[in-house]
Design brief:
Layout lengths: L1 H5 L2 E2 L7 E7 L4 H19 L1 E10 L5 E9 L4 E2 L6 E12 L2 E9 L1
Antiparallel strand pairs: 1-5, 2-4, 3-4, 6-7
Length: about 110
């Protein structure tokens, strides 16, 4: 999730405004990745906040739920265009050596 924010903003040393709940239904790993990234984009677009940290865990039904810490977008240095969507083209999500490795194309 941090990589998405690095595309357009530098939220360094900005105080967390609040934590927002997030929940994504189960499905293939790539669908979970897209859903999480789309949720971040939704928060940016609708609430004018920038995600800075996430606290996520798997659910019993194969989904993901948790909290996303956000800062007010007006408190963040913008360094590029804000993302508008995520493409399924070239999408990857795999667990390797105990760590997740993901790749997504983000539309701006």
């Amino acid at each position: 999730m941090q990589a998405l924010v690095e595309i357009f903003a530098n939220p360094t040393d900005t105080a967390v405004l609040r934590s927002l709940p997030v929940s994504v239904d189960g499905g293939p790993d790539t669908d979970l990745l897209v859903s999480l990234l789309q949720e971040e984009i939704y928060l940016i677009d609708v609430f004018g906040v920038v995600p800075v940290r996430s606290h996520l865990a798997g659910t019993d039904k194969g989904g993901i739920s948790g909290q996303i810490d956000v800062v007010d977008a007006s408190e963040v240095e913008l360094t590029g265009p804000v993302p508008k969507g995520v493409s399924y083209h070239g999408l990857e999500a795999r667990l390797q050596d105990g760590r997740w490795h993901c790749r997504a194309v983000v539309d701006v």
